[in-house]
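Q: Entry one of two.
A:
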Amino acid sequence: MNDKGFWIYLLILCGSTYLIRAIPFAAARKKITNTFIRSFLHYIPYTVLAAMTFPAALYATDNVISAAAGLAVGMIFALLGKGLTTVAVVSCLGVFITDLIVSSPL
């Protein structure tokens, strides 16, 4: 990619990001009191983060099986209420151990 293309893409990205954040402020004149809309707006960041993270987690390694195993281990530990560092470490260990098992010749 050349420098001109990079700056064009960057400007489009900045403009679209700004519009997504500015339009709700311009459209909403008063405080939103509807509990459904407030709940919907509250969970949007988590939904977007999950939608971006989940596919990347499955294709983070060369083997989808080991990636899925690491994701499953991480989800289990997260649901058990463990901290972020613990979840990350056991997920990495799950990927590593599963990759050793799957890729070892029998």
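Q: Entry two of two.
A:
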Amino acid sequence: MKYYELEAEEKKELEAIERAIESGEIKSVPDFTKRKKELQQIAKSTLNKTRNINIRLSERDLYKLKSKAIEEGIPYQTLASSILHKSTVR
């Protein structure tokens, strides 16, 4: 399992979830282990279906995309994929 350092906002969310579990506000689903495996398989199947595409952009747009990616500290292709994903999921 990979370890990730949580940001302050994520830590607050995790603490809120833990409090909700302790207070009984959130309850576990029946046969949690089976359901967890089902959801993991669905996520894995969904995330593994990537396809390559070719797209033509103006030099100016590509420059701006690369600049924005540098600001966010991620590869420009990842940023482009994220932008496309956000615009298609509604």
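A: Comment on entry two: The chain has four helices and no strands. The chain has a mean pLDDT of 88.
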